[in-house]
Amino acid sequence: MKHIIEVENIKCGGCMNSIKNTLAKSEGVSEVSIDKETETIEIESTTEREQLVQILSNLGYPEKGHNTLLKKAKSYVSCAIGKMN
User: Fold this and answer.
1) For the CA atoms of 20, 23, 29, 35, what is the dihedral angle to 10 degrees?
2) 41 forms bridges with which residues in the sheet?
3) 85: pLDDT confidence band, cut at 50, 70 and 90?
4) 35-53: b (≥16 Cβ within 10 Å) or e
5) What is the per-residue pLDDT across 33-83, written as a single tens digit (0 to 9) for each?
6) Eight-state DSSP code of residue 8
């Protein structure tokens, strides 16, 4: 099943690497595609959409309209980790 999720805080390739690497390790995820300009993530997965949204939110990339200062801070950490990998 294809899930399309619009998120916040995607700033660069580091962010995209963190998202892709984390989702790739998630059970049931077979493909991840990210559009940085629209902050849209397409995920081919057998996993429920809400579980994927929670994973992304925990990384600091919440669904559009659900951003907080804490989520922004988490996204900077995730971005830095993505740049190192």
Assistant:
1) -40
2) 5, 34
3) confident
4) eeeebebebebebeeeebb
5) 999 999 999 999 999 999 999 999 999 999 999 999 999 999 999 999 999
6) S
How far, in Å, CA of 83 to CA of 67, rounded? 22
Burial 14-24 (b: 16+ CB within 10 A, else e): bbbbbbbebbe
Among all chains, which residue has been given the structure tokens 């900077």?
Answer: 76
Pair 62, 24: CB distance under 8 Å: no
Output the pLDDT for position 84: 87
Amino acid identity, residue 12? Answer: C
Span 6-28, mean pLDDT? 96
